[in-house]
Design goal:
Blueprint lengths: L34 E7 L4 E6 L2 H7 L6 E7 L4 H11 L3 H8 L6 E4 L4 E10 L5 E10 L3 E6 L7 H9 L9 H36 L3 H33 L7 H26 L1
Parallel strand pairs: 3-7
Antiparallel strand pairs: 1-2, 1-3, 4-5, 5-6, 6-7
């Protein structure tokens, strides 16, 4: 008889007490120590700076001749978020959404920046699905990304920045935000391809050697399809909001490429609905 693998339970988010003040930046006691990198580039130059203190990065991003990607991984510093509020005027309600990592994909516009959220899906070492929030704060020359874990799927974007091919070094910070969102969406295709292959294998087992594990494996994929559906629908709506925004921070050139990512979301929704029918 086949051995049934124990089901991985969904992450339980650690939250402050009900009734806490709006805009409270809540740092979980198990939060990872921040790892901060600053990618500084223009059409001709590119370098990566390891940042020890967030104030160092804030000073550097004032150089208008460069575009910057400030990458923050790990939330284990209340002082860091306080500095972002005081020095960059990032609203505390935004910082609250960044640190409470159960948000749906969305776009919000503020006077001097745009705030957005994506959900990064990836397989862990056991092929279970990890669902990680990635938050974006976009300014005229900088994209700041936040995530509570160290692992990500963004290496192809880093490689493109390093190589300097295409538009990525010359099209500004809004284009880099698109590129990061696009690679996150593209990983959904790979995940769905793998689940499609798993369903084909389950179907073969059903006819050749049925056992109780088939029901379990089918339920796992069904739950995962529900999870990705909950991500991709609001992701589509967020990309549509980017296409419709009048914010000067998001260029018309960027919107041309966002339309392609929006179309990818439509395709992913169609694939999810098709797999649900199998």
């Amino acid at each position: 008889m086949a051995t049934i693998k124990k089901r991985k339970h969904q992450k339980r988010f650690s939250l402050p007490k009900a009734g806490s003040s709006p805009g409270l930046v809540y740092i979980d006691e198990h939060a990872l120590k921040p790892q901060i990198k600053l990618y500084r580039y223009n059409a001709d130059t590119y370098d990566v700076i390891d940042i020890k203190d967030i104030t160092e990065a804030i000073k550097l991003i004032k150089e208008e001749k460069y575009t910057f990607w400030l990458e923050i991984k790990g939330f284990g510093s209340a002082e860091m978020f306080e500095t972002l509020n005081l020095e960059l005027k990032i609203n505390k309600l935004v910082l609250e959404d960044i640190t409470r990592t159960y948000q749906r994909p969305k776009l919000e516009e503020y006077d001097s920046y745009v705030f957005a959220i994506s959900r990064m899906l990836r397989f862990d070492n056991n092929r279970d699905l990890d669902n990680v929030q990635v938050s974006f704060v976009l300014t005229s020359n900088t994209i700041i990304t936040f995530q509570e874990t160290y692992e990500d799927c963004l290496e192809p974007v880093r490689s493109r920045l390093s190589a300097g091919k295409g538009n990525i070094r010359s099209a500004g910070s809004s284009y880099l935000m698109y590129a990061l969102m696009d690679i996150i969406v593209d990983t959904y295709f790979e995940i769905l391809r793998q689940w499609g292959e798993d369903l084909d294998a389950i179907e073969d087992r059903l006819f050749s050697k049925p056992d109780k594990s088939i029901m379990y494996d089918t339920q796992v994929i069904k739950r995962n399809l529900i999870s990705i559906r909950r991500v991709v629908w609001p992701e589509r709506d967020k990309l549509n909001d980017i296409l419709r925004t009048d914010s000067p921070l998001i260029t018309e050139q960027t919107k041309m490429f966002v339309k392609d990512a929006y179309d990818h979301c439509i395709q992913i929704i169609d694939i999810v609905e098709s797999l649900k029918e199998i």
